[in-house]
Amino acid sequence: MSAKIISGTEVASQIREELKQEVTALKEKQGVVPGLVTILVGHNPASVSYVTAKQKTAHELGFHSIQDDQPEDISEENLLKLIDKYNNDPKIHGILVQLPLPKHIDEKKVLNAIDPDKDVDGFHPVNVGRLMIGGKEAKFLPCTPAGIQELIVRSGFETAGAEVVVVGRSNIVGKPIANIMLQKGKGANSTVTIVHTGTKDLEAHCKRADILIVAAGVPGLVKPEWIKPGACVIDVGVNRVGEKKSEKTGKMVPILKGDVDFDAAKEIAGAITPVPGGVGPMTITMLMKNTVKSAKLAAGLA
Ligand code: L34
């Protein structure tokens, strides 16, 4: 039987509709307008595309939104000064510096410079710590992991007691999603294993997974025969494997592939996310959700 396709695009659009109403009410009743700045250093094509999508969504939701483009060769000092400017701007509730950054800039220093109360990416050590402690401590969940959890819950899979296997140990996805799924509480309470490039038998671990979350950035890494029949498969990989001519616009567009061989995997899995249209749109939506939360917190409304 063919797997249920978990459409991130659909779930994201539902959540955006809810957020839009919340933003309108905040504006009308409290005079609060959520403010988001996205800072992009250089012109990495994937980053340009993601940041553009974030700005477009923020605009559609009625945010005060700023796209701040900086040259590839901006000094670390000037980038830190820019962050400080937004830290002190009361109209801004969320600051996002798109990663990766050029090599001459220390990513850690940059993430540490963002006010934890405006860190809507959830990458500042204070927010990473809050997430690890869990419960009400957690303030801003990182966007991709938060989106993954939402997709699993909405797909109807039981997470309590489930074997969750996470492929990949990045700070953006692997480590935080593992932490989220092992917390006590709704939509989590799972038994979590993280596997990575140092793991001896990747296949054996994947085969045990009731919920398999793949965030390795290696196209087609997970083979269909590694999937337990009926499992929920979340494919976080958005790999650009080439270019093709768009039928709509005639322009060249990237060909995107996940970390899982989708066509074969969907014949085995119980549910699976596509690429594109799976986790990606959820990442953007969770950023909006965090920014609304930050604006409410700043106004004493949450
Ligand atoms: N600071 N840097 C910071 N925060 C983030 O949360 C990110 N991430 C990751 C890269 N760097 C970051 C993103 O925004 C990855 N990421 C992201 C965001 C959106 C999409 C994919 C990754 C997305 O919308 N993907 C579409 C396809 C878009 C395309 O490339 O054409 C999808 O349907 O999967």
Name the features.
single chain; 302 residues; alpha/beta; 6-stranded parallel β-sheet; 3-stranded parallel β-sheet; 39% helix; globular; binds ligand L34
Bound molecules: ligand L34
Helicity range: 25-40%
Main sheet, how many strands, which sense, barrel? Answer: 6 strands, parallel
Q: pLDDT under 50 segments (min length 5)?
A: none
Work out the strand percent. Answer: 15-25%
Give the neighbour order of strands across the main sheet.
Answer: 1-11-8-7-5-6
| Distance N to C terminus | 45 Å
SSE string, helices as H and strands as E = EHEHEHEHHHEHEHEEEEHEH
The radius of gyration over CA amounts to 19 Å
Q: What class do helices, strands and sheet pairing give?
A: alpha/beta
Number of helices: 10
Q: How many runs of DSSP E, i.e. beta strands?
A: 11
3D shape: globular
Give the averaged pLDDT, no decimals: 97
